[in-house]
Every structure is written in C-alpha cells, then in structure tokens.
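Appendix B, Record 12. Input sequence as logged:
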Amino acid sequence: MTTTANELQTKGDAARRAARDLARTSTDVKNRALEAIADALLDHADEIIAANETDVAGGKEAGLTPAVIDRLTLNHDRLAAIAADTRAVAVLPDPVGEMIDMKTLPNGMRAGRRRVPLGVIAAIYEARPNVTVDIAALCLKSGNTCILRGGKETINSNKVIARVLREAITAAGGPGEAVQLIENTDRGLIGELLAMKETIDLVVPRGGKELISFVAANATMPVLTGGIGVCHTYVDRAADLDKAVAIALNAKTRKFSICNALDTLIVHADVAPGFLPNMARAFAGKDVEMRCDERAMAILENSGNAVAAGPEDFDTEFLSLTAAVRVVDTLDEAIEHIYEHGTGHSDAILTEDYSAAMRFLDEVDTAVCYVNASTQFTDGAQFGLGAEIIDSTQKTIARGPVGLREITTYKWIVFGNGQTRP
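Logged structural output:
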C-alpha cells in the first residue's frame, strides 16, 4: 500500500467509525453542531479569507479563468451566506428515523421502512470552498460522515474550513471525525479513493466534464453525478416580452459561472424581430456576447455584441458572459433542439400560453423545468433544502438539487407477535 493509500485508508477508517457514532447522534446535537459551524465560520472569517486570498493569488498566477476564480473566491458576504445556509439546514426536519409506509399485514405483523443514513460519502470537487461547508452540513444533518477531496487550487481555504468544522462539531458534542479532508493534492490519489468500496458508500464528483467522466468510469461504489449544464431558455410566441428580457438577463448574468446559468436562448420566429434587439441591448449592458444562428444574426446585424455562432456553440456550457442564440418556427423545434443539445440540467419556457407551458413540462426531459422563471434558481437553498450536495442530472438515486432525504436510504423494520411462516 502506498503512502497516499495509507493516508486515505486512515481517514476512511476514521470516517467509518464516526459514521456509527453519528448515526445514533440526536437531532438536537446535530442542530447544535450546525449552529456552532455557522457561528465559527463568522468568528474565523478573517482567517478563512486570508487563506482564501492565498488560493486566489495562486489561481491567478496559474492562469485560472475568471469563472473559476469567481467560484474560488470567498469574502465576508459569501461567508455570511454560507453560514445562513448552514443555519437553514439546522431548522430542516431530520430525515433520520422517518417512518415510511408502515402497515399491518394480514398475519398481524406490522412492516414498514425507516429512513437511515447511507454511511460514508466521499466528495471530489475543484475550486469551490463553499462546497466543503455545504456537503459537511448536509452530511451531518442526515447522519452521514464525509471524506472531502477538494482541488489543489483551494487547499489553503479547505484546510482552515475543515479544521473549523471539526472543532465546532466537537464543541457541540458531536463526532468531529465526521468530517475528513484529504490534504494531499496529488491527482493520482483519486483512483485509489475510488477503489475504497469497503469504506465509502457513495461518491459525488463536482467539477468539470473530465473529472465527472473519470469518477463515473472508475468508481467501485455508487456515483451521484451532475453539474454539467447546457441550459436553455425558450421565448415562446406567447411570451410577455418585457418579462422575458428580465428573466433571460438574470438567467445569464446574475452569476455566469454556475452550472445553471443560461447558455442558449431560443426564440420563436414570430417574436424574434421585436424581442431580440431589446435583448441585445440588455445583454450589451452586461457585456454579454451573443453567438447567433443565421436568422438571429440577420435581425441583430447592427448590434455590436452579436457574432455568428460557431459549430460547437450550441453544445457549450460557457461559464462566461456568452450566450448562443437560435430562432425557431415552432415549440416542437425548440423542444427538439433541447433534446439534441441539452444535458438534462435546467431548462425554461417563457410563455403566457398554458398549453405550451404544459407541453414543455411534459416533454422536456430535464432535471428542473421552469415556466416563466430564471434557471438561476436551481439551487438546494432556493428549493428549501438548505444547501445541496450536487445538482444531479441522473435519473436514479436522485435528480435535481440533492438535499437531506436524497442522501439517506431506508431499511425495513418488522414488528411481530410470535408469527412464524408456514
């Protein structure tokens, strides 16, 4: 066994032992620990931000893109938001112990399912120090321990945050070993981590397509994937065009570096001449470049922020101030485009036509479908989950924002009174 594997196994064994303790930890203690984490993040804000500034400086020196630097950066406002999300998890109902479908059988036995933790969850992620807190908080409340492996670009932030989390959990009476951070940033250890099926019950990759594909192909335990989003907003012929401009602008520019930001704007031909010039002006005010198909380009040829789309633009998750634009003749054509180019993450229709809205909801096969709203809302906190482990694009285990219930399982429990099977 290599030195790296020894480190992984040591921390994996600690997480497995802590999982037994956490599974029987009371809701009150878990909630106190979450409140303690929120307080500690604010109390140690200067220390966390100082470590993060080192990471950001290193990231800039390494040539990381502005989108990655934005995801990497912490400040007092962002830490306050992370702390608020942690408190939101504390007030959510504890899923552990919830009874499901309890019923009395014809022989008098009572049988049902009780919700229980999965056990140990490993998360592999890149330049997102907020993920360290989000995953730890959700795992704690759901009775799971976690093994966290962030990228080298955020290691200084993660070291401080993980220490603060463990100290807060311990001070509240919980098992501090429930949060394990892999501090070795050697990429080679990921393969060894993915071989630990006897220790890890679920692995969650959060990052780029290359990372997710590698984990999905090499993990020996179940994998929960998602996060790659080529997200569409379709402006229907019956859309309120002023509302549509505001929604599309928010979907693209509120935060362009997230997986649920608008990538492709699809516009019905009947409203394109009136809508697209207004949309172009709004996008220009936020420095958004529009990569247009021929029909959109013909309408926007005098717009300084419109250029002809390239062959890959409609399959691209931009994570930048860039949006592809296509004009279509029918709702069917819009839905077909989403089927051909989408990734099943978040897609929206903007329309005042109820039938069109219902067709979109029924026929677009995506994790989160919107009617007359920005795709920026695909977020566990916004959906009342407190935070999220991942935005899953799978159709098994969980789909969309993954919160507390989605990272538990169940076991059957049976109450008898002497029954034997004939």
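Residues 3-224+402-415 form a domain with the Aldehyde Dehydrogenase; Chain A, domain 1 fold (CATH 3.40.605.10).
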